[in-house]
Design brief:
Layout lengths: L12 E7 L4 E7 L4 E9 L7 E6 L6 E4 L5 H14 L9 E8 L10 E2 L2 H9 L8 H14 L5 E5 L9 H4 L5 H6 L9 H14 L8 E7 L3 E7 L2 E5 L21 H8 L5 H10 L2 H6 L4 H9 L3 H25 L4 E5 H6 L1 H8 L11 H5 L6 E2 L8 E4 L4 H14 L5
Parallel strand pairs: 1-6, 6-8, 9-12, 12-14
Antiparallel strand pairs: 1-2, 2-3, 3-4, 4-5, 7-8, 9-10, 10-11, 13-14
Bound molecules: adenosine-5'-diphosphate, acetylphosphate and magnesium ion (MG).
InterPro entries: Ac/propionate_kinase, Aliphatic_acid_kin_short-chain, Aliphatic_acid_kinase_CS, ATPase_NBD
Keywords: ATP-binding, Cytoplasm, Kinase, Magnesium, Metal-binding, Nucleotide-binding, Transferase
Pfam families: Acetate_kinase
Length: 412
């Protein structure tokens, strides 16, 4: 569908869809006053135990619906039903646009983009380098287009924030012609979160983003680190795909690439089997059978050695990236933890920073133990470098970028 869709005059609401490999997070916001009207999450899409938790914020309280949702289309239709039940349906004339998180935008998209046939074709072309994510994003866009063909649909790309990386950080040291022919380079992901968190940290320090150097640690199911100098990304741990870098829930992060040849030649595994091994059966789940940090902490408390080893491998990798990005930045003003693990797992934060005192880094045990949804400092006052916890808000960032694009369109 080639879209001529424009924002209905006076419409100020934006629906944001963040479609993950097996989940959809969504928010409906009124950009006129910044009010959140509804937030929700569909988990375990494709399983018998799919669950939708919908929270209409005007009335408070959550509604939970547990029902098998075979795919993302079914999940999005269930979301549309929940919104409609609160009089916030997708048919509302107050809806100005729908904003979509799109994980891989390659090099073409360094800014939010109104989705046309050409944009869709590019997102589809990138499926092989974001196999867990772009297909879900595409289904989200198609389902939303079918429900509201008249509305502008906007893509906000995870890769966009990283397009400022210098060439020497983005290039792999492989044959240049081969790399260029196949567009092989570091793209980086979670950019919307890295951008949002690095800005919020500057605010927390009472400084302008242009003045501060920050290491952002986005630790969710997928995890990545980035080095942000004066508001611009200068390096990040994910690469051509979201597989490189930190140890994640189910992904290995960095390994010797020769492991792949070895598994093919010696273990007789197919390329597809190795892909599944590294993306879905590795990381924390591969090391100890669990990918949820809460469960891993419970097991460690009970003396479980495999969970302890998984935790130690996770922390060791995290420390290596903090050290690496410290060196890349030269001067660091703050290290910021974000996403599910970074925001909630105090033992992860403590273990990652312990031993880095010579770098000016320390965590105050009492501040680290505080549970809060607000951005906050957890370093002692004497520390040279601030350590912060900053809840990420990819949906708010996507809503703001979507709304400003449909309100003040730029030539694309
Ligand atoms: N209270 C908590 N303590 C420790 N870890 C948590 C807690 N809550 C969530 N997590 C971790 O956060 C992960 C989900 O993070 P999230 O950022 O929502 O990931 P994603 O967006 O990739 O789905 C869970 O798998 C779990 O490991
Ligand atoms: C890019 C990526 O890994 O995203 P997520 O953490 O949502 O899986
Ligand atoms: Mg996430």
């Amino acid at each position: 569908m080639t879209t001529n869709a424009t924002r209905p005059t006076d419409a100020t609401r934006v629906l944001v869809l963040n479609s993950g490999s097996s989940s959809v997070k969504y928010q409906l916001l009124d950009m006129h006053d910044g009010a959140r009207l509804a937030v929700g999450l569909v988990e375990r899409i494709g399983e018998e135990t799919s669950r939708l938790v919908h929270t209409p914020l005007r009335d408070g309280g959550s509604r939970e619906r547990t029902a098998p949702m075979a795919d993302h289309e079914a999940a999005l239709k269930a979301v549309a039903d929940e919104l409609a039940a609160d009089g916030l349906g997708l048919d509302s004339p107050e809806l100005a646009a729908i904003g979509h998180r799109v994980v891989h935008g390659g090099l073409k998209f360094s800014a939010p983009t109104v989705i046309t046939d050409e944009v869709m074709a590019e997102i589809e072309r990138l499926v092989p380098v974001a196999p867990l994510h772009n297909p879900a994003n595409i289904t989200g866009i198609r389902t939303a287009q079918a429900l509201r063909p008249d509305l502008p649909q906007v893509a906000v790309f995870d890769t966009a924030f990283h397009t400022t990386m210098p060439e020497y950080a983005a290039r792999y040291a492989i044959d240049v012609e081969t790399a260029d022919a196949h567009r092989i380079r570091r793209y980086g992901f979670h950019g919307t979160s890295h951008a949002y968190v690095s800005r919020r940290v500057a605010g927390l320090l009472g400084k302008d983003p242009a003045e501060v150097n920050v290491i952002v640690l986005h630790l969710g199911n997928g995890a990545s680190a980035s080095a942000v100098a004066g508001g611009r990304c200068v390096d990040t741990s994910m690469g051509l795909t979201p597989l490189e870098g930190l140890v994640m829930g189910t992904r290995s992060g960095d390994i010797d690439p020769a492991v792949v040849f070895h598994l093919e030649r010696v273990a007789g595994m197919s390329t597809d089997e190795i892909d599944v091994l590294l993306n879905k059966k590795s990381g924390l789940v591969g090391l100890c059978g669990d990918n949820d940090m809460r469960e891993i902490q419970r097991r460690i408390d009970g003396g479980d050695e495999r969970a302890r080893l998984a935790f130690d491998v996770y922390i060791h990798r995290l420390k290596k990236y903090i050290g690496a990005y410290y060196a890349v930045l030269g001067r660091v003003d703050a290290v910021a933890f974000t996403a599910g693990v970074g925001e909630n797992a105090a033992p992860v934060r403590e273990a990652a920073i312990t031993g880095l005192e010579e770098l000016g880094l320390a965590v105050d045990a009492d501040l680290n133990a505080v549970r809060s949804g607000e951005p906050r400092l957890i370093s002692p006052e004497y520390a040279r470098v601030a350590v912060a916890v900053v809840p990420t808000d990819e949906e708010l960032e996507i809503a703001q970028q979507t709304y400003s694009l449909v309100t003040f369109p730029v030539d694309q």
